[in-house]
Amino acid sequence: MPASKNQVEIQVECCRAPACCDMRGLLSFLILHILSKKKMYGLEIAKEIAKRKADKPNPGTLYPTLRSLERKGLVEGLKEGNVKTYKLTPAGREGLEKAKEFFIQAYGDIVLESM
Asked: May I ask the CATH architecture of the domain 27-114?
């Protein structure tokens, strides 16, 4: 079916997910996206994810993912008093842009079909 004036047609091509983001649960991508808006501490990140998914990730899922993103240099953890806040690094911002491109290629047609 051809795209109407208000729709964009997306060509789906096989591509690999970028190294920054684990595509199994999309959690890494979602964390990078959330941190692109502002720095946050772990519980804030969990609450923001809950707003989007109606389910807050448990600490046993969230914190290992944050540590992994730190090890990859995509997120920086900063100790502020008793709280550790996380912010996106320049490499994290670049990884997020690559991940967005991947998601559009891989899943954009699904979103468009739902509109």
From this structure: Orthogonal Bundle (1.10)
